[in-house]
Amino acid sequence: MTKGPRGLQVLSIEGIPEIGRGDPIGELVAARAELEPGDVVVVTQKIVSKSEGRVVEVDSSDPASKRRLAESEAVRVLRRRGDLVVTETRHGFVCASSGVDLSNVDDGFAVLLPVDPDRSARRIRDQIRVHAGVEVGVVVSDTFGRAWRRGVTDVAIGCAGVAAVVDLRGSLDGLGRELSVTEVCVADEIAGAADLVMGKSSGIPAAIVRGVDPAWLRESSVRDEIVRPYGEDLFR
Amino acid sequence: MTKGPRGLQVLSIEGIPEIGRGDPIGELVAARAELEPGDVVVVTQKIVSKSEGRVVEVDSSDPASKRRLAESEAVRVLRRRGDLVVTETRHGFVCASSGVDLSNVDDGFAVLLPVDPDRSARRIRDQIRVHAGVEVGVVVSDTFGRAWRRGVTDVAIGCAGVAAVVDLRGSLDGLGRELSVTEVCVADEIAGAADLVMGKSSGIPAAIVRGVDPAWLRESSVRDEIVRPYGEDLFR
């Protein structure tokens, strides 16, 4: 039976500078946090994309320019309302504007999603191993809307070293009966927890979630575990 | 500018007994946790529903009985695949089986959602005020799937004394530009964080999230702040 831990800490990582192309995020995190083995480091997509040079010019005076860029980043446009588009990205994410974002970036530029956010997470994890000497999990988070609920929440778009989905199949409930809900997306819950200490407007792009169940610390992938293939979907 | 806090603790509340009709959840929580002012107490829908007598008989040998019950609890059936239904409940929630659940309940019975989960949260908050003498926020959580992501996460179906959605409109990003993402569903992020220490199989039905931004502690409602009205929806 997989048991949850009994206490977590969620700590923001202060002092990370404005990130530019080539900046080593794992090294910057390692220098600013007292990391412990088994910590999960959550970093926002925004700084990961900036470090990977995923920044393009955009005409910010033209409201349609973001939509056109979003469409160019999509494999499918699912819904369109004015200049708002909900798309499916090459990664298989369904989100507004293919994740294209004009906030927290210089005027006239837009940030795109990382090409392979699981790979980004692995790279950050490896940098932390080298520079802090500890084995951590890493989640790359982004802010997505939801079809039927207002407000956005942070979810995982990439991960390394920590489960994306924990499978409780075969576990028994408190009364000894087989659980009907069997797959829990802990990476999304970890990303959301981290957002509670980061905040969209405070400019803190990284946090630690300390105390997760050690059984969750394993090789992992958002693409393989969380992305729902087109054919499985009831709502696309 | 709303700033997130710099550190959170997420603590499970141990020792809550099996809940039956009429059991005072707020009093039971207050007796088992060292609550502090500003804590957010998260309790699972399951124990709230049980305490409110929202338990009905069901023929557990008939796989269609859960679907029929779910349909009777729905205002709309959105998708059907075999005996799985995705519905819109009277509350406006879009979820599997109208939230009807056969796990963690005696064989031959099913648990329905509370009639008014915001009211349930207020009642628990008031009980805690009386029995622990502290003002806390309360979130009633339930486990929902998502249209385009595998795995379930816990979300808020009711709340009291803590914001469901925090509006950052008018806030500036780290570079001094207006934020494009303005409404963050902190109640869902709090519910998900709490799930990380409760776990579906460990039978812990309550947790504390300590250290949330004091600006979030206010009157609130999942129904008014999170439920997306039918007419706003792009995917129903």
Give an account of the 3D structure:
Two copies of one chain form a homodimer. Chain A folds into two domains: 9-54 and 114-226, 60s Ribosomal Protein L30, Chain: A; 55-113, CofE-like fold (Alpha-Beta Complex). The longest helix of chain A has 16 residues, at 117-132. Chain A is α+β, with helices and mostly antiparallel strands and 236 residues long. Chain A is globular, with a radius of gyration of 18 Å. Chain A is built from six helices and twelve strands. In chain A, the strands form four sheets. Chain A has a five-stranded mixed beta sheet, with helices on both faces. Chain A has a three-stranded antiparallel beta sheet with strand order 4-5-6. A two-stranded antiparallel sheet of chain A has the order 3-7. At the A-B interface, strand 1, strand 9, strand 11 and helix 5 of A face strand 1, strand 9, strand 11 and helix 5 of B.
